[in-house]
Amino acid sequence: MSDSGSAPTGDRSATRWLLLEGNRLAIAAGVVACVTLATLGILWTFGYAAVRPRSPINFVYSSLITGNLTLLTVVLSINQLVLSRELGAPGTLSQRIDATLEYRSEVEEATDASVTPKSPSAFIRHLHESVGETVDALAGTTDELDGERRQRLESVLDSLRRDVRTVNGALDGDDVPIFGVVGATISTNHAEQLNEIAALRANAGEALSDEQRESLDRLEDALFQIDVARDYFKTIYVQKELAYLSRVLLYVGVPAIVSGVLSLLAYNAGHVGSVPSELYALVIVVTVTLGFAPLAILFAFVLRLAWVAQQTATIAPFSPDADYRP
What is the predicted pLDDT for the residue at 2? Predict the structure, then answer.
């Protein structure tokens, strides 16, 4: 899964930063800055009359207050979604723990490890290192095959090597956050590699030795385990991201509603005409900017969540359409 190959490298990097790697609060701040500049531009073009009594600013405040109150219901819905995954009866929680322990045992058996790492980044690195070792061992046996089969096998092994280098390079370090794990693996898709491995086993016949078939089986198992781990860590990331999003929306949304209500009351007060135009314009710029801040935060966070969901909508051995268009 990758960006379109026809786009320039700079464009792909900018798109990836906006959709995936960029700090969400920085992107929200950029949207808020654009709103501030647009408001200042209106004041510069039309003068203070644009925000004095009997101007449309009254309706702007009313809309912002209504919209931000709606966002509070969004926060409630987000928290319900997160809590529905966290809460459960003892039997349900016990089943989750047993399933996780069973999965770790399968990985330990497949990778010949006594204990697998506990951190997500180290665990994903461990799986990819195991794949790399199997690839290196299998690469030494390709001379036993004829031209076409050797070429197909070498192509699969080269593809897996690139994935291992990409993921382990991105996870180099001890303090990689959970999103770093998702970001490192989101550009890899093992569906084609799994299909090639299955085709090699089915079509090679007696040309494959028992050792080669065993290595291909280990690769297939490891790739499925990587896909399970990636989807599990993606689930953890989404829960954490939604919880953080709801908290930030509350931090910003409540002041935005309060400032909007107070500004609307002041706007409709009888003595508003005595307020200096410069001061009133400054209040308008600040409160309108603050009123749009919750929407900017929602835009920045949901943009990444939606993109991650689109890129990881299916699991192996199926290949999703990364460039989906309705």
Answer: 39
